[in-house]
């Protein structure tokens, strides 16, 4: 790669550190005067460039001659380019920690390089608008209303539109006023990057004071810059600018080359596109704002207008601005006057001599010292010819609060002239979207006067989606944009391809894309399509564009990674893939599909709002995601899915701020799911239960309960409606208030079922038309039911008959099978999950008793003496437990084998069961052989401990013990941190203590005991003083002989540093018993208080998992569960009867029932949103905001009244003068004899008396 190519890569690369900016001096140049041309007025000591003879290079100084003195100095001819020596960061002394970026560059530097430097390397966000403030240089006095326009109008518009402000960059004139306005806004705005105003100063290098402080050929990071006389106008850099472009044309003390460079930069930016990475719908608007200005500014305006750059002229601000505004007004009046001879054409050629004379007079009026009047007249007439690109703002009479609207109108008027085919309101809409000004769009464009069509809103809709502008998305959907027509699968793929590369979703999708591309390249290698050295590049070059971009398959894989096996893969139907297909096979099929025409991209998205909701959630866009959630169906399910996705993304996010935002948004969606379902439950219990267990066709056949479990939505499970449904399932057909002692008594004496000891609910009637009578308009939901409780808590053995009964209801309803009363009561009792739980608990206690008896009393020697009959019964019991664990892990529908094993291992208690079973098998195998008999007995003893700990999970169903179990589990984690600190102290103290007490003791077992075991026992008070204190030593038989010690003799204790041993013991006990133990207590207290505060929520979530587990278990407990296993094997694999047990927690609705339930759920969601909106409007913050608006309006009216008062005072003064003049005239006439009055002079009536009346 050539050096120039590497330099170009540095310009186009992303921002780096100070160490990788060496390319700047290679690409960016400065200008240095190379020919000394003496100024005639300087006596030969100063060059026409403004620099002295000593300031030139020796070669340039040697060029002094009479011929050179006769020349006119020109930057291009008499200066040359050299590598720049001033770039980096500048720190303004006395201005805090504020740093700005700066660069000295040649006046003819390409604008492309400069813009790439600003956006890519310096990291300035791409603007949605560029306002270039020109004029007002030097020490001109700026009028107060101009300052008010800059502060309240320009800066406010820059913030709301995401604009750049180009200024002169020096602390003088208008540039200083702009800097002060930016400073005042920054002091009052929030500390957020979204609220910062970006001001870029474009200043002449030769005019900057103390510019030598910025010179450093290697770059300054930072350069300390001192500013003097801060209260006065000066040519120091303004510290309120974010970046400085110091334009150098080789001159000193003059503004050469700045305006031309600035005009080229403005023109280049105007051809770039707005939005993230240029994804906007329009090019970046550039507006030049003229304030005052000298005669040279007329040529600047003329040249810029020739490039179709719009201008905003502040009339009344100064010479050039006033001249242009007056000429435009005067000539327009002449042109539109029908009696004027020049009214037939607007061009200068048809203007009459009187009009030219009028322009000439105005030029002389504002620039009396200028000699080239005719040249200025031509400039003014050329400006008038481009008057369509000029907007005049009369700040003294117009309100500064509407300045942003003026900017929009100015740019809109120019855009209409540039593109004649553009429709006026479409271009104005694009500008409003680019500036994110939905208020302007509502007031000007969507006020009912324009009938918007779909095609007019399509491009702006994409712009609003990509650039995160949810208010515009809502506005478009309310005014003519049909989301069904808009969102196709192809457009959805384009939205994913436009993700910002800073998001986590982008990196995850790129990994999936790379996997697909790597698989395609490997297949090409296998098929011999390319050689090993060229396969990678040739495959990429030969692949179509769709093969190199993100597809819906990558999105589906990402959602599968985030949501897991809760739902089926997304977008497989559009891609014509089977959900049961393995990922590798699916990759191959997608590769073949993308090589073809990809007809699926022209299809409409099946669930557009849900697809956009997922797209917004993956990018962590809160407002956009909440809006799409409001528009999407299945509100509870969507909110829980959003919660699940965000919590999984937060685990993968590295940035702390983004992680917290994801967790906050996830909690918000969980709250929304909780609130919506609460509304549904209050409206109709039966419909709410159906909502929980119905399979969602949009979210891959998942249910709300499954999604809430995966999302760890504890708050959702604490809702009363969820708990009521779980209680119904838990108790089956029995009454919920049945006492436990009645269950135990009936468990051991089944004939009690025929008595009234246990109350059963009356059998609910099956409704043939489940949705019949439901009011789909009012959506009350109280007049009908979606699913009866028979569907929810149906008996397992009757499920097949009940399903057949439902299928034939439309033809001829069949009565249920009548069974004897005793058989019916037995089935209702034994098939309830609470009975299954009770049986398992009782039999588990019996199992532990048997296990303990075998270990303690009946553990026979190895064969042929053992094992005993009771031990064989224990073996069979554990065998039934193993069969149940196999059923739980492998006999699960709809998952691959590896996924089944993964799901099984993820559960903590399954790990405990697996450990207990493995230990039991190991212990049984070892106890069968004499050599390992005692080892096997020890393993069995440890295994009994593991089986006993399994009781903790059983007691999780208890309301008081359940939260305590969670507290214990979290405290165990705290103990690990405590043990880490304790191990450090144990090691440090133990090694030091051993080294001081025993000079030589090579016995490894005793070293371990004295280094770890004894210091650990010291914590509990077991301190052998007779072995540590020299005054209390026991003189036992010991030796210092090395050979004897190695042979096993006890070494003698060394008393040389006994004082240090005692001191270390004191310090050790101080830190362990006081510091570390109290730290552990504090950690336990924090954990207890944190869990206890939400103990009810934790318990309800645990209770759900336990109910699901025992609802899916066979009714008989171990060891009789083997009968249920044999029965299940016969029904599933011999008779081929499908399982219906899972339908207790998953019901699939069809036909109109799905739509009716969705409409009812949407109605409850709208009720909730309306109530939340009302409460928000009535909140204190909303009231304060409305009060603030009213106060601002009152203050504005008071200011207008003050203006009226001033005008009235002026009018009274003039009236008083007129009255005085008339009185003087009357008095003079009365004293003269010229006129004789026929009646006396009138008297002034006193109106104060009338006002008092």
Q: How is this structure best described in words?
A:
It is found in: Membrane. Among the domains are: 42 residues, no CATH class; 146 residues; 140 residues, no CATH class. It is 56% helix and 6% strand. It is built from 52 helices and twelve strands. Strands 8-3-4-9-7-6-5-10-11-12 form a ten-stranded mixed sheet, sandwiched between helices. A two-stranded antiparallel ribbon has the order 1-2. Helix 38 packs antiparallel against helix 42. The N terminus is likely disordered.
What is the structure about, briefly put?
The protein is mainly alpha-helical.
What class do helices, strands and sheet pairing give? Answer: mainly alpha
Strand arrangement in the largest pleated sheet:
8-3-4-9-7-6-5-10-11-12
Helix content: 55-70%
Low-confidence stretches: 1-19, 336-349, 529-542, 764-816
What is the averaged pLDDT score? 80
What shape does the CA trace take?
A: elongated
Domain Ion transport: 845-1095
Domain TRPM SLOG: 102-326
Membrane topology: Multi-pass membrane protein
Subcellular location: Membrane
